[in-house]
Amino acid sequence: MSMNVQALSGGFSAPVFDSQAVFRSLMDGMARPGVVQSITTKIGQPSPLGKAAGAVALALCDADTPIWLQPYFAKSGVADWIGFHTGALLAQEKSEARFVFLQAASGLYSFDLFASGTQEYPDRSATIVIEVSSIGKGSELVLSGPGIKEQRTVSVAGLPDVFDEIWKGNRSIFPRGVDVILTTGDRLLCLPRTTRIG
């Protein structure tokens, strides 16, 4: 199978520096849920992957982190691009993936089939990156929990109405559960499993 030429393009121009910058943004985002982070690094990701989602892949994925792509991404050059730049391979089953890339518009139903860790090792869970249509406009999410003083309100467009129920289900198995990163264009915000919505 020939690799898409687009897969060989892009990537971090200064891998160590750029990866550290994105990693810092993600750590800040996880420590302060709902605070919007902007990715300024050029990465040349293939369509339909957004810049922030591509930056997450480059900063966090490697040969030891199987990924799962929603068919919308899997049918494009995204898998080859992530694989070429990070060494990450596609997971055969959703439960094997450490990082998951979804597009909200293509449908979200449940996180149940993805790894949620165990009581002894809750960190052995998936991080789910969800592309939405907008951050800063749309429906309001009222967040509370660790890293948030009282509450924080963020606006997100593109999440399905069932997201509240999906998130409640995720919260109900704490300390197990998945962590979520919402992305759009060059913006992202983090929803660690400790965050309450509503």
Topology readout:
Layout lengths: L14 H17 L5 E2 L12 H10 L6 E3 L1 H4 L3 H9 L12 E5 L23 E5 L2 E11 L7 E6 L5 H9 L7 E6 L2 E5 L4 E2 L1
Parallel strand pairs: 2-3, 3-4, 4-7
Antiparallel strand pairs: 1-8, 5-6, 5-9, 7-8
Q: How many individual β-strands?
A: 9
The percentage helix is 10-25%
**Rg from Cα:** 16 Å
Strand content: 15-25%
Order of helices and strands: HEHEHHEEEEHEEE
User: Which runs of at least 5 residues are low in confidence (pLDDT < 50)?
Assistant: none
Q: Tell me the overall shape.
A: globular
How far do the termini sit from each other?
Answer: 47 Å
Strand order of the main beta sheet, please?
A: 1-8-7-4-3-2
**Major β-sheet annotation:** 6 strands, mixed
Mean pLDDT: 92
Q: What would you call the quaternary organization?
A: single chain
Number of helices: 5
Summing up helix and strand content along with how strands pair, one would put the structural category as alpha/beta
Protein name: Phosphonate C-P lyase system protein PhnH
InterPro entries: PhnH-like_sp (IPR038058), Phosphonate_metab_PhnH (IPR008772)
Pfam family, one: PhnH
Organism: Pseudorhizobium halotolerans
Q: What features would you describe in this structure?
A:
The structure is a single chain. This protein has 198 residues and is α/β, with parallel strands linked by helices. It is built from five helices and nine strands; from the N terminus they run H-E-H-E-H-H-E-E-E-E-H-E-E-E. The protein has helices at 15-31, 51-60, 71-74, 78-86, 163-171, and strands at 37-38, 67-69, 99-103, 127-131, 134-144, 152-157, 179-184, 187-191, 196-197. A hairpin with a 2-residue loop joins strand 7 (179-184) and strand 8. Helix 1 packs across helix 2 (51-60). The longest helix is centred in the N-terminal third of the chain and has 17 residues, at 15-31. The model has no long low-confidence stretch (mean pLDDT 92). GO terms for molecular function: lyase activity. InterPro entries: PhnH-like_sp, Phosphonate_metab_PhnH. Keywords: Lyase. This is Phosphonate C-P lyase system protein PhnH.
